[in-house]
Amino acid sequence: MLKYTIRRILAIVPMLFLISVVVFFLALAMPGDALSGEIDPNNSDPEYIEMMREKLGYNDPIHVQYYRWITDFIQGDFGTSVKYKMPVEDLIAQRLPNTIFLGIISLLFTYLFAFAMGMYAGKKPYTKIDHAIGGFNYLMLAIPIYIAGVFAIYLFSFKLGWFPFSGSVDIALTEGTAEWWLSRLYHVILPALVLGAMGTASYTQFLRNDIIDNSQKDYVRTARAKGTPESRIYNQHILRNSVIPLITFLGFDIVTIVNGALITETIFTYPGLGQLFLTSMQTNDYPTLMTLALMFSFLVLIGNLIADLLYGIVDPRIRVE
Amino acid sequence: MREVSNSQAILEVKNLESAFMIEGEEYNAVDGVSFQVQPGKVVGVVGESGCGKSVMSLSIMGLLPKGIGKVAGGEIIFDGKHLEQLPDQKMNKIRGKEISMIFQEPMTSLNPVFTIGYQLEEVLHNHFKISKEEATKKIIQLLDAVGISRPNKIIKDYPHQLSGGMRQRVMIAMAIACQPKLLIADEPTTALDVTVQAQILELLQDIQRKNDMSIIFITHDLGVVAESCHEVIVMYAGRIVEKASVERLFKGPKHPYTKLLMGAIPRLDETVDELETIEGIVPTLTKMPSVGCRFANRCPQAMKECVEVTPQLKEEESNHEVACLLYEASRPEEEVSR
Amino acid sequence: MEIVPNHNQTQTSATKPQKSMSPWAIARRKFFKNKLAVISLIYLTAIAVLSLLAPYITTADVTKVNIGDMSLPPSSEHWLGTDTSGRDVFTRLLYGGRVSLLVGVTCTTFILIIGTIIGSVAGYFGGWVDNVLMRFTDFMLNFPFLVFVIVLNAVLFGVISGVWLLIFVISMLGWGGVARLVRSKILSEKENEYILAAISVGGKPYKIIGKHLLPNVLTTVIVQATILFAGMIVAESALSYLGFGVPQEVPSWGNMLSASQQPEVLQNMPWIWMPPALVLILTILSINFIGEGIKDALNPKSFR
Amino acid sequence: MRNAAKPLLEVNNLQMHFPVRGGFFRRKIGEVKAVDGVTLSINKGETLGLVGESGCGKSTTGRSILRLLQPTAGQVLLEGEDITSVKGKKLWDIRKDMQMVFQDPYASLNPMQMVGNIVGEPIRNYYPKKKSEEIKQEVADLLKRVGLPEEAYYKYAHEFSGGQRQRIGIARALALKPKLIIADEPVSALDVSVQSQVLNLLNELQDEFQLTYLFIAHDLSVVKHMSNRIGVMYLGQIVEIADKGSIYENPLHPYTQALISAVPDASKVGEKRDRIVLEGDVPSPENPPTGCPFHTRCPKAIDKCSTIKPPLKEVKPGQQVACVLYDESLLKS
Amino acid sequence: SGGDDEQTKGEGEETSEEGTDENTGEDNPTQGGTITYAIDSEPEGILNIHYYGTATDADVLGFMVESLIDYDENLEPQPNLASWETEDNKTYTFTFEEGVKWHDGDELTVNDWVFALETIAHPDYEGPRYANVQTIEGAEAFNKGEAESISGLEVVDDYTINVTFDEARVNNLVNVWSYPMHEEYWKDVPVKDMLEHEKTRMKPMGTGPFKIGNVVPGESYEYIANEDYWKGAPNLDKVIVKVIDNKAVTGALQNGEVDMVPVHPTMGKDVEAMENVDLVTYPGLSYYYVGFKFGKFDNEKKEIVEKNEKYADLKLRQAMYHAINREEWVEAFFGGYGTPVNAPVPSSHWIAADNDDLKNHYEYDPEKAKALLDEAGYEDTDGDGFREDPKGEKFVVNFAHYSSTNPTFEARAKALTQYWNEIGLQTELQMMESSLYYDSIEKDKKGIEVFFGGWSTGADPDPSALWKSDQLWNLPRWENEKSDQLLEDALNVEVVGTDKEKRKAIYTEWQQLTNEELPMLYIAELEEIMGINQRVGGVEYDVSGANNANEWYIKE
Ligand SMILES: Nc1ncnc2c1ncn2[C@@H]1O[C@H](COP(=O)(O)OP(=O)(O)OP(=O)(O)O)[C@@H](O)[C@H]1O
Ligand SMILES: Nc1ncnc2c1ncn2[C@@H]1O[C@H](COP(=O)(O)OP(=O)(O)OP(=O)(O)O)[C@@H](O)[C@H]1O
Ligand SMILES: [Mg+2]
Ligand SMILES: [Mg+2]
Question: What positions does the domain ABC transporter occupy (chain D) (predicted)?
């Protein structure tokens, strides 16, 4: 297993290299650079912009630029954000906790709801409640995340005033206190619900169907023939089997969150990486843009890796020695 | 006249009807089956695929798929208890402890995500208050008893790490863990290779003798029946067509179906140019004729009445019952082609 | 006892000879028995037809800004009111459907074509071909879809014009999943003995792929198509909502919805954003139902 | 033996090793020696039965002979012509003479095709110029011959029972009037009653069309019923090959002996037989034992067995065995 | 400035926020309380006036930093932290207020200003302000590392300093960098590290009425009253500056979650209708225009090298101008919070020419427009409803506009094209992503012919950077000797001396010229709008921005 893991991890390296090349060239091919559009007679002048272009190395040959970028990158120097005028790594360090927090809470919602609904529906398929859950899921699957976000703000923030519509924390609180954490939680609930809802429906449906499938398996019949109580059959025998694929989804959830964060964070003005990406996109903040694009790809790689490894770990059938 | 010593029977099935819901209608997959199992005896059940062998055994276990299948009529009396009336919880006390069952597919009958040890322990925990150490000790003994070497290691293994034969041994260990009075073996060797099948048959016979269990042995292999059973039930399309002791059945099969079945199987010890064939197939549940002999449309000896009169199981000789109009009191002369 | 075996007797079994039905016909019949799917199909067809016929249904100019008619609530003249540019919402809804469905259909088609070709070539030939193609597919799949659609969209701006840019970009980035799916389906289908049989009776590779493999893979592909179709419509609208989709001057449901980013519209003019939101949700819903219907109808258990 | 003159098919030391790939770069990390040195010959009009336990390489042998797989080593001769490594058009031509009946009547028919097309496909492949009415007539004849109703032509596989499907498969195999038919467990998926129909049909067809069969099965009694000679396979090798009488009455190889004694016998009602019960399971072909493949389970194994791999040797006329016990030279060495 | 509404808004206010008007305010405003001030786009978080780049950062900074000079409602410089005197517009003597304290309690001295100027002139300095220091004598040498200090700075005592510029200019005062930088606080930080330093990001230092509390980067900033503020302790205890999403603005105002927030013109009507909120408008300093490309600029040679004749005909431009209904357009897309202008100077600027002095007012008059086109020979010769050019060839106006997520951009651009279509000029619209857009315009890329833009001006009225023919940002590539001459004259001390009126006269002449020559079509200037909760008192806005925040208070 260890050997397999190491090999699997090493295999990421060439992928990362290729992705970095692609990211670099895409960034290069993008129109303009970070300084175009910075024309403002009050704040800067053409000489300043030309000087910055030279200084930022925009006029060097391509391979030099790539080499400089990638070597710096490997050493943890992601460059300086053109928009925020600060090291990208610091910028990301500021935003990352928010995105992680949002991701974790939304995953929590996803799994919590999916388990509650999926298990119930799977245990009692074709009942009224199962149909209700199914109907609800169909609807959830059909509502694009951004529309859900817009509805949520409209309803919960504007009309009902239950939740804030933007930000990640109440400024007046000191960092680290209980109130501060509560406030963070309070701010994250709505976006996390929206983001979490994306996965909930499909996971619920998956769990339900898998439980139904599994409950018709031979080993369930065996368990019954042993005189195992029904509750134990569901909570142990069936659930354990159904949870395995679900756990491996955890890896893919990272991908979902990357894509989802882009939208949710923007809608809820939640200062995380997704929002940062769109801002850097709009402002041609290439160092940030490239770092984030590479980082997101890296996350996807990691997500797939985790999915693979988890699969090997949780499923005894394919556990590799 | 039929039941000579019904008081002694460990299991008595009377007129069992098991029905399935198919597209909103009920169909009997087992239709009026009656038989007894005496203590310490092995009863073989043979018949083509789809004739209701499994459904019958699941009915006894109370394991018909809920909502789709149910026992629609008749009685199942085990050890004086009417199983068909028992609620699930009470049934759970009996399953695995007094009646246990092993299945055809050793590959899928074990839960892939639990260790062998865990699954074996479970049956003990289901029925006894027993400490973990004791349980482990017990299961190692059990595995030993079914001829698994190095049981200490096996209990930590997962099912996929075992071969088919080993798994079937584990299933047997599981089934005999609580020393049940009755074991239902539903085609326990069909999926195995001949050499492994021989091992398992040997093992079952051994255990049966040691524990003085009764076994209902379901198979479609007449050879297996001949070698390991005391009595045989031949089923066709949800009904019993013939019932006899092994010796009688193999020496003088009476029902045309039984005869054809025997003739259709090539045998090692004799050479025939041509095998018997039974034309057609077992009718599917929904196409089952409601009156008449269900074999009539495939029977080379079928008569006009066969499609009108439902034959009853009648004792033809002692310990040999058959359900066929050919053996009814007024034997009609004329044979009717279909 | 002599039993005369009767070989010449044909096996009509107990069933009456039935009109023979191809698997497709069975699937079709099963599909049309599914009420939800049929209703969805009707809805989707209606939306598609209305969108296609938009120029004949309404005479209003979709792009023209009408300064005098801005932000009017629904009335008999403007059934769904007008937006902040004075354009008739109903008209835009119809035209928006054209664009959204066009993007959905074309992206789905391109993705399916690319994915199926790559997947079936990799799956059928195996070996290094498979290796190379699948590494490439993995590589493509490592790009977070939305992120790279946005980036690529910016890179190619001006190279390809208008809606086709988005379609191109989405198709380029979206085929990975299909390729994988088709490949694995081909691999499992290839294991079936009927493929061996086809080879052993002298079938040529193209014939085997085309006649034996693809029709059987098609069932999977069709189901996947519905999922993709819904996904692509959502992707288009989400990107347009974020401002990275089809050009703003082109009416699409996503572009219409992006009006909800203006607070006064979101709060006080629900007629501007609710209709596209609802139509979009219903469309996705109906596509999903149709997909489920097809999936059930094509369930191989029903004809294998 | 009906025709001892010249074998239709000869197989010499056939080997088929599948690579086992693993890891990210899918490197070869091992080999499954599915077939590891099979030698046999089949005469015209004869049926050679091949028995063995699951996974011992029967199907692989069949497929390698048909060149559906490219053998790793060895030689396949059809009517004296070496077809081990023919390719392209040549291979295509040769396939006409050899056809296969498959094990799984469900997986071996394309569910999307009409039965008429399935059966007619070989004809259309090889005689593209034939008129479609002609083909249709031929197919109708074939269907009739295997006992299928006329209207079967326009039906799809899913409308038939297992036995009928197997008949369709047989009709397809017959369509090109092949010289050799390899029947790979054609009845093991069928119920007893149906099984006998198919077996009888195969026998009739053999007589009618002078077919030669390689009949693969794991059921010894079925093989015996069908074959003139029988080869017993174990772990990729033939351990004994002889005519059916000898195999049953006088099996020599310990494995054959065990195999025969393991078959339940309906004639021995109530008797307690002296069964030879083998220990353990068949070893994995990925990791076969050294020496005689059977020595790990062999009740008569001696020390030598774990080191010496005995070749197939004629012990009695027409009976070849691969066992140290019958090989004087090996025993002494 | 380049940029969309959000960007233009509030720009040119680097010097704003602190008023000198101490006269306003009630006699006894309530003490204490917190107000929430919202900004609707995310600041970059550069809380250092010497480095900041966006208006939102300036908004955030406004509560805590002050300038030496301030501007009144006519954008005339007024003394604030310092007063000044000059004889010749070359050497100035600045006298600092005494007793002004930095937030850490140290006193402000002229050295802090010298420190600021030397920081900006330092070779390692990475901000955009060097142009504001460059004009001081010796700054160049210091910048090149040739001198230890800037020779033009002569410290007399802690409160007095003489500053000598490299030459006499009329705008030396408004141009020079006028913010001090706390030397004690910063001296240990090397200049190259300043931009990224924590003191810039999280712990800024100033002399203003509020000092910094908590900072949640990109999200919110907490300000605590500076009790030692030299103009008197603020009434409020706290100000929270919070970034909120544009779409949340009205909701937040309505439910009192924010007290003050800049409002987008399209939302003006909604805010006006709120009972708990006052809508405050004040003149802005930006204007929108439609530009034409008359040629190409060579950035190396600093001259216009190629000519583009397509829009050279003045009548064509005039016709296009008359075709636009500017009142209607402003009403529709800016909620009426703006007025048409006829020359490129916002009317609240002191140099702005009186509208009556401008010859043409270019009223909406499609008939006149058509007549002009007819006269110029643009006639529909092939009967397709659109005019061909005088040579009879197809004539299409290619109009470009930047795009963003804001859907109104497309509508307002489209509306312009419709005006032109109506007079028979076939117009095609191209929406382009902002940065690509400005890049294309700046580089005179193909396809850019007629373009939409906006400029915002600062306190310094000099329009040279945008209009002289040797300037990169003269985007239309308009070359006019008279214009160049006038712009030079207006800055020439020889010509105008220190006489403001004289200077204004020259600028008026220049505006008349641009009004007639129409190198661009001036569309409108916008008002700035603030939504202010009625519980907040003491807030006043003029063209220079808000009054000093220490006067703000919460009503009972
Ligand atoms: N879950 C079910 N739903 C509907 N019909 C069923 C179900 N299970 C069994 N049947 C039907 O009941 C009949 C008897 O099936 P059963 O499984 O008992 O046959 P069997 O004799 O055990 O066959 P085999 O030898 O193949 O195991 C068959 O016709 C079968 O189709
Ligand atoms: N394509 C393949 N790749 C790798 N291993 C294979 C492949 N085909 C067969 N094998 C392996 O080769 C061995 C022999 O397989 P084969 O199918 O020939 O056995 P068989 O005797 O026909 O068994 P059965 O009775 O189950 O059909 C098995 O261990 C199998 O797993
Ligand atoms: Mg069964
Ligand atoms: Mg096989």
Answer: 9-260
Architecture of domain A96-314: Orthogonal Bundle (1.10)
Index of the ligand 1 atom closest to the CA of residue B238: 14
Does B2 reside within a domain?
A: no
Closest residue (by CA) to atom 4 of ligand 1?
Answer: B20
A42, A172, A282 member nearest E456 (Cβ): A42
Question: All domains of chain C, ordered by start, with CATH?
Answer: 25-54+88-298 (1.10.3720.10)
Cα–Cα distances (Å) from C239 to A29, B330, C166, C170, C242, in that order, read 20, 86, 9, 11, 5
Chains E and D touch (3+ CB pairs under 8 A): no
Chain D nearest CA to A4, separation (Å): 7
Look at phi and psi of residue C263 and say left if phi exceeds 0, alpha if psi is from -120 to 50, else beta: alpha
Per residue in D13-71, pLDDT tens? 999 999 887 655 566 778 889 999 899 999 999 999 999 988 899 999 999 999 988 99
Q: Is residue B249 part of a domain?
A: yes
- How many C-beta neighbours within 10 Å does residue E164 have? 17
Residue A43 confidence class, pLDDT cut points 50, 70, 90:
low
Residues in chain E: 556
Task: Enumerate helices (H) and strands (E) in chain C, giving the number of each.
Answer: 14, 0
- Residue D54 Cβ contacting ligand 2 at under 6 Å: yes
Q: What are residue E157's DSSP bridge partners?
A: E160
Domain boundary among B177, B200, B220: B177
Q: Do E289 and E526 contact (CB within 8 A), yes or no?
A: no
Domains of chain D: 7-332 (3.40.50.300)
- Per residue in D167-215, pLDDT tens? 999 999 999 999 999 999 998 888 888 889 999 999 999 999 999 999 9
**How do beta strands E34-39 and E396-403 pair?**
unpaired
CB of D18 within 6 A of ligand 2: the answer is yes
Interface of A with E in 250-289 (CB under 8 A): 268-269, 271, 279, 282-284
C262 and E CB contact within 8 Å: yes
- Which of A25-34, B329-338, C7-16, D124-133 has maximum average pLDDT? D124-133
CA of B50 to the centre of ligand 3 (A): 7
Model confidence pLDDT, tens digit, residues C23-54 = 888 888 889 988 999 999 999 999 999 999 98
From the CA of B52, give the closest atom in ligand 1. 18
Helix %, strand %, coil % of chain B (to 5): 35, 25, 45
B5 lies in a domain? no
Give the domain extent around B157.
112-177
E96: three-class secondary structure by DSSP? strand
- Dist. CA D103 → ligand 4 center (Å): 7
The answer to pTM > 0.90 is no
Residue A86 is predicted with a pLDDT of: 76
Distance CA C90, CA C276 (A): 9
- The bound ligand whose nearest atom lies closest to the alpha carbon of B20 is 1
Task: Count structural domains, chain B.
Answer: 2
- Nearest chain C residue to D98 by CA distance is C200
* Chain D contact set for C8 (CB, 8 A): 147
Q: Alpha-carbon distance E427 to B19, whole Å?
A: 78
Residues near ligand 1 with C-beta < 6 Å?
A: B 20, 22, 29, 47, 49-55, 65, 68-69, 220, 284-285
- How far is Cα C54 from Cα C99, in angstroms, rounded to an integer? 11
Ligand closest to the CA atom of residue B31: 1
Contact E451, E291 (CB under 8 A): yes
- Which chain B residues are closer than 8 Å to D51 by Cβ? none
* pLDDT grade for E501, boundaries at 50, 70 and 90: confident
Rounded-to-integer distance, Cα E553 and Cα E556, Å: 10
Residue E367 identity:
E
